[in-house]
């Protein structure tokens, strides 16, 4: 009498196929979650600020100009039309290169558009958010109000 193998049993073969698909799906979900977590961690400012550190001017190279966040470490320089902008990741680099509105902010004092590469940049909260001013004079006038 011939011994049956797993190949001869359609139920076992189908079950094994389902296990393979479930394993692949679990690996894809895990990899996607890991990539999301890594990117999410990268976008967070690397340090927090105490109240006396807020409203201080910051070096543009330490700011992600897409996320409008002080990152606390040098960012990726993005030269566009003879000016240098900064982004924290390749997605931000792409936006700065291709989307003009990513390179422009509104001065909170004057309401005028300001080129982020030429702005006076100030940290505005403990999470590292920044504001862009046309000049230090606009910033000082804004503080008085």
Sheet having the most strands: 2 strands, antiparallel
Order of helices and strands: HEEEEHEEEEH
Which value, in Å, is the CA radius of gyration? 25 Å
Which whole number gives the mean pLDDT?
A: 85
Outline: elongated
| Low-confidence spans | none
Q: What's the tally of helices?
A: 3
Q: How does this model look, in words?
A:
- The chain is elongated and about 90 Å long.
- The chain has a two-stranded antiparallel sheet with strand order 1-2.
- The longest helix has 34 residues, at 10-43.
- The protein is 36% helix and 19% strand.
- A hairpin with a 6-residue loop joins β7 and β8.
- It is built from three helices and eight strands, in the order αββββαββββα.
- The protein has 145 residues and is of the alpha+beta class.
- The protein has helices at residues 10-43, 90-98, 136-144; strands at residues 63-64, 69-70, 76-80, 83-87, 104-106, 113-115, 120-123, 130-133.
- It starts with 9 loop residues before the first helix and ends with a helix.
């Amino acid at each position: 009498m011939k011994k049956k193998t797993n190949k001869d049993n359609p139920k076992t073969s189908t079950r094994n196929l389902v296990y393979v698909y479930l394993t692949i799906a679990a690996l894809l979900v895990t990899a996607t979650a890991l990539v999301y977590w890594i990117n999410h961690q990268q976008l967070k400012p690397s340090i927090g600020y105490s109240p006396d550190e807020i409203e201080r001017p910051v070096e543009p190279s330490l700011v992600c100009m897409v996320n409008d966040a002080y990152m606390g470490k040098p960012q990726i320089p993005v030269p566009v039309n003879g000016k240098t902008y900064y982004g924290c990741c390749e997605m931000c680099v792409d936006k700065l290169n291709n989307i003009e509105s990513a390179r422009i902010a509104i001065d909170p004092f004057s309401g005028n558009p300001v080129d982020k590469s030429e702005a006076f940049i100030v940290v505005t909260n403990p999470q590292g958010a920044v504001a862009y001013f046309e000049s230090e004079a606009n910033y000082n006038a804004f503080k008085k109000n």
